[in-house]
Amino acid sequence: MSDFRLQPANTLIVGMTGSGKTTFVNQYLLNDEVVACRFLFDDLNRMWPRLRLTPCYTLKDLEASLGTRWSVFQPMRAFGGDTKAAFRWWCQWVFHCATRGPGKKLVVVPELWRHCTEDSIPQELALLAQAGRELNVELVLDTQRPEALNPSITGQSTELVCFRLMSHEALRAVEKLWRDCGVVCTRERVASLPLGSFLAWNRLSGGSLSGRVF
User: Residue 24 sits in a domain of what CATH number?
Assistant: First the structure.
């Protein structure tokens, strides 16, 4: 539908491992739309090899990457495996970068459930989700565990993209997300989605979309 997208948006992508989430995000990032910069937190090394990008390991690397409009942070060298500290630092750095100039900034975090819980969320991530919109920051977040997400994330998400889910807890959580969007989408329908297929809904425009990424 032509009115599916409204700007700025926070996109939440849910689905089991292998269902198509990462492929969807990569295709999203590679569209022709002009973006000031794309910021990726890729400690799992899932995105930069597929996108053929050079990961950044230091602040110097990150600052230099801004000129390319692609900034991929791999934190293992600088933070010695402390992913939580690395993620909070990176969120703060991205927010400061967003204040430097105009244009859309895409912020991508794979498997978001590793960085927040239903009851807690890093303050730096909450700032990106809530205040970042005024700076034209658009979050693109994916997870295989929607039941573990904080309401600060689900409440700020304007677009929901759903791939196949199988676990009882995940299906129950995503059914509630659909219901909060005002959409009837049963657990059975989500569980029976073919791998690579998705259903999507925009909370602001009311637009719906379905498709395949493979």
Answer: 3.40.50.300
How far apart are the C-alpha atoms of 34 and 105, rounded to whole Å? Answer: 10
Residue 122 belongs to what domain range?
11-212
| Predicted confidence band of residue 32 (pLDDT cuts 50, 70, 90) | low
> Would 181 be classed as within a structural domain?
yes
The answer for residues whose C-beta is within 8 angstroms of residue 145's C-beta and 6 or more apart is: 113, 169, 170
Whether residue 107 is contained in a domain is answered as: yes
- List, in sequence order, every beta strand (DSSP E) within the chain: 11-14, 37-41, 70-73, 105-109, 137-143, 159-162, 197-202, 208-212
Mean pLDDT calculated for residue range 68-81: 93
In a domain, 2, yes or no: no
Count of domains observed in the chain: 1
Cα–Cα distance for residue pair 82/159, rounded to 1 Å: 31
pTM attached to this predicted model:
0.90
Identify whether 4 is part of a domain: no
Say how far apart CA 45 and CA 213 lie, in whole Å. Answer: 20
Highest mean pLDDT among 32-46, 50-64, 148-162: 50-64
In what helix (H) or strand (E) does residue 171 lie, and over which residues does it extend?
A: helix 168-180
Reported as a pLDDT band with limits 50, 70 and 90, residue 206 is: confident
